[in-house]
Design a protein that fits this description.
Structural class: alpha+beta
Helix content: 10-25%
Radius of gyration: 15 Å
Strand content: over 45%
Number of strands: 6
Oligomer: single chain
Number of domains: 1
Largest sheet: 6 strands, antiparallel
Number of helices: 1
Strand order of the largest sheet: 1-2-3-4-5-6
Shape: elongated
Order of helices and strands: EEEEEEH
Low-confidence stretches: none
């Protein structure tokens, strides 16, 4: 009989400004990332809006881009290793959140 290693869930919030946050959640099994979500949210018009989300839903890493009209665009990732994809997603959002905010606001006009 083998013992299974329990899955560990980690959650973080990174505050970029008073109106911008990144929510990070990931699961580890045996030290490996087996699931993750990195979501950039912006407070626009008094509401928190999801702008960009990187996750592993549907068994693959990808990025969902939200538009003010409620539509969503999905882009696949070139990463098969979830740990690498998670690191990329966190760094990408921290480097590009201001341009994503500006793009969303421009589309909202």
């Amino acid at each position: 009989m083998t013992e299974s290693t329990p899955r560990q869930r980690k959650r973080f919030k990174v505050v970029l400004s008073t109106k911008d946050e990144v929510h990070i959640t990931f699961d580890l099994e045996k030290g490996q990332v087996v699931r993750f979500a990195v979501q950039y949210l912006a407070r626009i018009g008094g509401k928190w809006q999801p702008i960009v989300r990187f996750d592993t839903a549907h068994g693959r890493s990808h990025m969902d881009i939200s538009h003010p009209d409620g539509s969503q665009e999905t882009r696949t990732f070139p990463f098969y290793d979830y740990g690498t994809a998670l690191t990329y997603a966190i760094n990408y959002v921290q480097e590009h959140w201001e341009s994503w905010r500006a793009r969303y606001r421009e589309q909202d006009r």
